[in-house]
Design a protein that fits this description.
heterodimer; A: alpha+beta; Beta Polymerase, domain 2; Alpha-Beta Plaits; B: 3 domains; 7 strands; nucleus (chain A); chromosome (chain A); RNA-binding (chain A); Nrap_D2 (chain A)
Chain lengths: 1141, 282
């Protein structure tokens, strides 16, 4: 207890001996950390002893502290990066393994037996067990080939440079083909690439017999079929720890670099097509890609030398490259055809170092930052860069490179464009990622480290819409249609990569202003066994394209083109084909235009889909059936309306308009004793986030009973439950005045008087049916019900005040006051703030609706309340790092699931910066308060500008156990959904994630669908429907009898169950048409408790000797479930296999 | 229940340690399961309320939610005339609920299991109840006395929630009248007390104890706090901060200590993150 006192006096003045211990523990933190992994890890505020804090600093320590403070906005970042580097670096043990394996492989390779010389096309010397890793189209080419031991075997690439990182450790081994196998003229007509493939096949045949090698696969470098490689893994259990990639190369300088000028031709049309042509060599089309792929084989040693020279100058080079590689990998840019791989990353940093844009003394952190900054600000598709210091005269100029390639980054020799196969779209994506990352980095409120380096950005969660080309073989006909023979020749027949740039530019043109960015998946390097033929070009996974939408323009149904008489009109017509038509607009202009289908918002959101399928069909001969558009598949679950499908935007708008009208009318009312100071909406429907917004209803009066005194309808016994009418809460603040009493009961009566008076006035002036109650006033207007609550701003204060026994006026917070503040202050404020957010981000509401639909379906809606869910979704829009704000409901929903499942709720507060009111200092303050009092705070902590310390929205729920389950289910749902969305083969049923697993519950109460008023909202549409007293037709503005308001037997039953059995069991139900109530016993309730008068509810006594203990009277409880839900319950399913009755 | 069943032959009351008699209660005659009510005479030394006379009040535990006060009254009428029934969420002493409220203004009662205080007219009924055999159940819902539950009950509740606005207005008016009257009385009392403290003609002041609520100055916790703070501020303003060398040195020291603290905090955070394997990027 002594310790506690000390803390109270002065937090720094701790008992020295104790804090010493802590210090020591910290020093051996890594060891301890490992030990305590299984324990619950909790972050406690640091306690340093006074003597530690105030001991005179040494110069070294001072420097360390200074550096940590000045270099990074938080020294934490520096440490985080160091830790990250430790995670990806290769361990010494691993390096030894690699070295020894390389030695054995090298030894083996040097002893390859010679074989007699044969024609290149003669494959008889190869045994059947090994195939040539090359697509032999056309079948033959000239030349002689024979196997001989390699001239040399060298390590190249990232491993000797020290930039090799985990996972997927690749060690590159270059095997030099001896000069006598090759001929200087082999450059032409794929002779060299074929010899290279043959040589690899020869090596594979020889190595196959060796026991030193685990498995052998063919692959090709960056998906380029001209550059096959052989993948070797060590035998035994290390087989997955690293891979050796064997490249075959010509001897350095064997071919003259000038032969590979991007405008030279090295594949003759005559040879390729097999047709006689009379073209001379000079008129043959250039083959820049073929040239650069052959040239690429000549240079790896030179590149390695260059990079080693640079890296020896700069100590942080390897670390910087490693960080950049992690960054690229998280963005899925690190591998595949046209990727920005680790080699390019090192080259880029080398470029920045040699051009003195960054200095040799910088740290890894600064290298990364400056590289990203350079990427963000430089467009290599227009202004290429070159590493060549003084290129020889034969080297092509940058302009020549730009003519031949989309992205230009020239290597130190000046002849090779290292980004030859990168598409402009990929570079734009890279640039976009870099600039977005820089933004997050500069923003002190974002955890830069986490969002830049730790969060994966898979395409499905990054892009707003996604579409896939499933049957890639269709691209063959696109090449024909687009007339791409010479390009096809240059790509050596790879029609997928030939057509891709053209399709991209076509879509870019067609989508124009609607999109921010168009990205595509990089097809992964194929890998196949040495015993099988090289896979066909179509045998790769479907090409996926991602689209980042511009929120304002993406959904517009009209593409307005140039005036009919302008010269651009022809171009426009050419692009759109028959869809383009002349239209006259209201401003008198007659222009070409394309009008897309789409009336409701959810249809309009799919306009990009119409554009894409139309353009692909028209220009690239790709039928609609092979385009799989994954843009709005999830939206189905919140779709309503039979004639016009809608996801609720239109209905919400109607509600908001009706509310605005009511609010205006309230303001204008005359004859109230006090004036109205504010009318505020406090219902999710008024911020566009109600899952199923209330619909205006027309009633069938004959369906109901009547209540005579107030001309109201009453549900009839024996009939199905009438349609549920949601009361839309509106808070009406009254002017403060000395006339308000200072007493809680009196205030309530005065409020009632106001309800009555407001009702009278609304009836008199506008003929609305009203029903005043002590707590609210229901107004029947436009087929909707508004529930007006009068509020007096001092009431919470009055509720908190009380006079104690000594006559002292004390102010004590209590639940009643909090609930009132929540209803009259916080909820209206949240509603108006989120309403504003919806105006900025049109799909905010839809994301909320999807998220809440999921929570409801998974039976979590009582624990993660509507307001909490809305705030969680709002955080996705306000702090999207590392993404951009969601542009479609689907991507927003996926990120919501990701947030739920991956956020570290235990150790971090989720800060939702509504209206951007929080500054960086507030963030630190929130975080510090949070860590200091973590134990007493809600498990799911959400801080907002108005609520920095308490997390009022999540105070009641969820509990730890429920949150754990939410996290688990969210992770599972996310995995399932992403697989479904990205896998073109699976049958699509996105509703799978909306069907809760019910096997975890103890009792299931099945409800009679007749008495479930919201049955139509159920996840799986019901098979039977009931008439619920609603008629089709136009809704009358006002008048008529008052409908049945807020009568839902299911929620009434749930409330009764919770009140009666809340301390014995948990009750779950889907509020949107769920027909099952799931009951889970609380484990604690079943432990026998000693008999106490305050704890006998629903329990029976068991007497053993003189002791009386109580246990729940389960039999009677189950009977009570039936009695209390009479008429509503269909059956009761007690899963007694889990517990005994 | 198994052991106690064996111990007591049928027709006998079942009494458990603690002095409670066990009564069975079932919803209707064809119910299979029964709830157990635990009854005992109400015995509290401190309470001398006329609402719960000691010798005639039966204390009942575990009354199911579908038993309203009326139902309980009828259930216990078989032991003798029942004078009144009081149902509560928790056992506790009788509380005066202030001015009388109409049912529309009463806080909504919780519909859980409740405890009851049943007051009989005769104390003999009390004994009858306590000696009731435990295997003869009380039946809540019979043909003469149907108890509505489920959908029927909710429809009834919904129908009963209506009130004529004029009637409601009347309730409000009469309450406010009463409130105003109470206010006036209070004001009158205060005025009188204040008058008493005035000087009389001869300049004498009558000093009385008075009640504490009548002080001229607002007497509240917040006000006390404010005065305290004001004084603290005054004290602080008088202090000089950069006067002595040691003060300057101290601020520097504080700065370094701050840095160190932050550094240590970060270090600890890292250790924690590392323990959670939070640095594995993929």
């Amino acid at each position: 207890m002594k310790k506690k006192q000390a803390v109270a006096e002065d937090p720094a003045e701790m008992i020295p001996s104790e804090s010493r211990e802590e210090e020591e523990e910290e020093n051996e933190a890594p060891v301890k950390a490992k030990r305590s992994k299984t324990e619950e890890v909790v972050y406690h505020p640091v306690k340093l002893s006074r003597s530690d804090l105030y001991r005179p600093p040494t110069a070294e320590e001072l420097n360390q502290l200074k550096e940590a403070e000045s270099l990074f906005h938080c020294s934490l970042l520096k440490m985080q990066m160091e830790e990250l580097l430790k995670e990806v670096a290769l361990s010494e043990r691993r390096k030894q393994q690699i070295d020894s394996f390389i030695q054995t492989v090298t030894k083996r390779l040097r002893t390859v037996p010679e074989s007699p010389e044969v024609e290149v096309s003669d494959l008889s010397w190869l045994s059947n067990a090994v195939k040539v890793p090359f697509l032999l189209v056309p079948k033959t080419t000239k030349g002689k080939f024979h196997m001989t031991p390699p001239a040399s075997v060298d390590l190249i690439g990232s491993y000797p440079l020290g930039t090799c990182t985990k996972p997927r450790v690749m060690v590159d081994l270059a095997v030099t083909i001896p000069a006598d196998v090759l001929h200087p003229k082999d450059v032409v007509n794929q002779r060299y690439p074929r010899k290279r493939a043959l040589y690899l096949a020869g090596l594979a045949q020889y190595l196959a017999s060796s026991s030193d090698i685990g498995s052998m696969l063919y692959s090709c470098l960056h998906g380029n079929r001209l550059r096959p490689v052989l993948l070797l893994t060590p035998p035994g259990k290390d087989s997955s720890s690293f891979t050796v990639r064997v490249h075959a190369c010509p001897p350095p300088g064997f071919f003259k670099p000038s032969r590979f000028h991007p405008q030279r031709n090295n594949i003759r049309t005559e040879w390729y097509t097999g047709l006689q042509t009379t073209q001379s060599e000079s008129s043959e089309p250039p083959t820049p890609l073929y040239n650069s792929s052959v040239l690429g084989d000549l240079l790896p040693r030179a590149h390695l030398q260059f990079l080693s020279a640079v890296s020896s100058q700069c100590s942080a080079f390897a670390d910087g490259v490693a960080l950049l590689k992690v960054w690229l990998r998280q963005r899925e840019l690190h591998q595949g055809t046209g990727c920005f791989n680790g080699f390019l990353a090192s080259m880029l940093i080398a470029y920045l170092l040699t051009s003195h844009r960054i200095s040799n003394s910088m740290t890894a952190y600064q290298l990364l930052r400056n590289t990203l900054n350079f990427l963000a600000s430089t467009d290599l598709t227009v202004n290429g860069i070159s590493l060549a210091k003084d290129p020889d005269s034969t080297a092509p100029s940058l302009a020549e490179f730009h003519n031949a390639f989309q992205v230009v980054f020239v290597d130190p020799s000046g002849h090779l464009n290292m980004c030859a196969d990168m598409t402009a779209c990929t570079y734009k994506q890279l640039q976009h990622e870099a600039s977005v990352s820089m933004e997050f980095w500069d923003n002190p409120t974002v955890d830069g480290f986490h969002s830049l380096l730790m969060t994966p950005k898979p395409m499905i969660r990054t892009s707003d819409h996604i579409f896939q080309l499933c049957e890639l073989v269709k691209l063959q006909s696109s090449c024909k249609k687009l007339n791409l023979l010479s390009e096809l020749m240059d790509h050596s027949g790879n029609y997928v990569h030939t057509a891709l740039p053209y399709i991209l530019s076509l879509l870019q043109r067609g989508l124009g202003q609607r999109i921010h960015l168009l990205t595509h998946s990089l097809s992964p390097d194929p890998e196949w066994s040495v015993e099988s033929e090289a896979p066909k070009h179509k045998a790769q996974p479907p090409l996926s394209f991602g689209v980042l939408l511009m929120p304002e323009l993406a959904a517009s149904a009209l593409d307005r083109g140039p005036p009919a008489d302008s010269p651009k009109a022809a171009e426009f017509r050419q692009l759109w084909g028959s869809r383009s038509e002349l239209r006259r607009f209201q401003d008198g202009a007659i222009t070409e235009a394309v009008l897309w289908d789409g009336e409701s918002m959810c249809q309009k959101r799919l306009v990009p889909r119409q554009i894409i399928t139309h353009l692909l069909q028209l220009h690239a001969d790709i039928p609609e059936s092979s385009v799989r558009y994954v843009g709005a598949m999830v939206d189905d679950v919140i779709k309503t309306g039979s004639e016009l499908p809608s996801t609720g935007e239109e209905e919400s708008l109607l509600v908001v308009q009706s509310y605005d009208d009511l609010s205006r009318k309230l303001w204008r009312l005359e004859g109230l004793p006090l004036s109205i100071t504010a009318v505020q909406g406090a219902h999710p429907a008024l911020r566009y986030t109600q899952v199923f917004p209330p619909l205006p209803l027309k009633l069938d009066y004959s369906f109901f009973d009547r209540e005579k005194t107030s001309r109201s309808l009453v549900p009839k016994e024996g009939k199905p439950c009438p349609a549920y009418i949601t009361p839309i809460t509106v808070i009406c603040h009254m002017e403060g005045s000395g006339k308000w009493p200072h007493d809680r009961l009196a205030i309530r009566h005065i409020r009632t008087a106001f309800h009555i008076r407001l009702g009278e006035l609304l009836k008199k002036h506008h003929n609305y049916m009203c029903r005043p109650c002590p707590t609210h006033l229901d107004v029947w207007k436009d087929g909707l019900v508004f529930r007006i609550q009068v509020a007096y701003h001092r009431e919470p204060q009055v509720l908190r005040e009380s006079v104690n026994a000594e006559g002292l006026l004390v102010v004590r917070d209590n639940e009643e006051a909090q609930a009132l503040e929540m209803a009259t202050i916080h909820k209206p404020l949240l509603t108006s703030t989120l309403h504003g957010l919806q105006q900025q981000h049109p799909c905010f509401g839809a994301v909320c609706r999807l998220a809440k639909r999921w929570l409801g379906a998974q039976l979590f809606s009582d624990d993660i309340t509507e307001d909490t869910a809305d705030l969680l979704v709002a955080s996705l829009f306000l702090q999207p790092a590392p993404f951009t704000p969601p542009g479609s409901p689907q991507v927003g929903f996926l990120r919501f699931l990701h947030l739920l499942s991956s956020f570290d709720w235990r150790n971090n507060p989720l800060v939702v910066n509504l209206n951007n009111q929080l500054a960086a200092t507030d963030y630190t303050e929130i975080k510090n308060d949070f860590t200091a009092t973590r134990e007493s705070l809600p498990v799911l902590f959400i801080a907002t500008p108005k609520d920095k310390k308490q997390s009022i929205w999540t105070k009641r729920a969820p509990s730890v156990q429920i949150l754990q389950r939410v996290v688990m289910v969210a992770a599972e749902s996310l995995k399932l959904l992403e697989n479904q969305l990205m896998d073109s083969n699976k049958i699509q049923d996105v509703r799978v994630v909306m069907r809760p697993p019910l096997d975890a519950y103890d009792v299931l109460i099945h409800l009679n669908p007749k008495q479930v008023p919201l049955l139509v909202q159920a996840v799986d549409p019901p098979t039977v429907t009931f008439s619920r007293g609603v008629m089709a037709g136009n809704v009358t503005q006002s008048g008529g009898a008052l409908p049945v308001i807020d009568y839902n037997p299911v929620s009434l039953y749930m409330a009764e169950l919770r009140e009666a059995f809340g301390d014995l069991a948990l009750f779950f139900c889907d509020p949107h048409g769920g027909t099952v109530i799931a009951v889970l016993w609380k484990p604690k309730a079943f432990i026998p408790m000693p008999f106490k008068t305050s704890q006998v509810s629903a329990r029976s006594v068991v007497v053993t000797g003189e002791e009386a203990n109580t246990v729940p009277n389960v039999e009677a409880i189950l009977e009570d479930f039936r009695i209390m839900g009479k008429g509503l319950i269909k059956s009761l399913e007690a899963r007694t296999e889990k517990w005994s009755l | 229940m198994a052991p106690s069943k064996k111990k007591h032959a049928s027709g006998q009351p079942c009494i458990i340690p603690g002095g409670f008699t066990v009564l069975s209660l079932q919803f209707s005659s064809d119910s299979v399961a029964q709830h157990k009510l635990y009854v005992k005479e109400h015995k509290v030394r401190a309470e001398k309320s006329s609402h719960r006379p000691l010798d005639r009040t039966l204390f009942v535990l575990n009354i199911p939610p579908y038993c309203s006060e009326g139902v309980v009254k009828e259930l216990f009428s078989q032991f003798g005339c029942v004078q009144s029934v009081e149902l509560r969420d928790h056992p506790g002493s009788f509380q005066d609920s202030g001015p009388k409220l109409s049912r529309f203004f009463k806080p909504v009662a919780k519909q859980g299991f409740r405890v009851g205080y049943v007051v009989f007219e005769n104390s003999s009924s009390l004994r009858a109840a306590k000696s009731h055999p435990h295997d003869v159940s009380l039946v809540v819902c019979t043909e003469q006395r149907p108890v509505k539950t489920g959908v029927q009950k909710w429809i009834q509740q919904y129908t009963e929630s209506f009130i004529n606005p004029d009637k409601l207005q009347h309730i409000v008016d009469s309450f406010m009248e009463g409130y105003d009257k109470r206010k006036e009385e209070e004001a009158e009392r205060q005025r009188k007390e204040a008058e008493q403290q005035q000087e009389d003609e001869e300049g004498w002041v009558k000093v009385t104890r008075g009640s504490k609520g009548t002080k001229g100055r607002p007497h509240s916790e917040a006000a006390n706090e404010r005065t305290l703070q004001k004084e603290m501020r005054k004290k602080k303003r008088k202090e000089l901060l950069n006067f002595y060398t040691w003060q300057h040195r101290n601020t520097q020291k504080e700065h370094i200590a701050d840095l160190r603290k932050k550094f240590e905090e970060d270090k600890q955070r890292i250790a924690l993150l590392r323990a959670q394997r939070k640095f594995k990027p993929y």
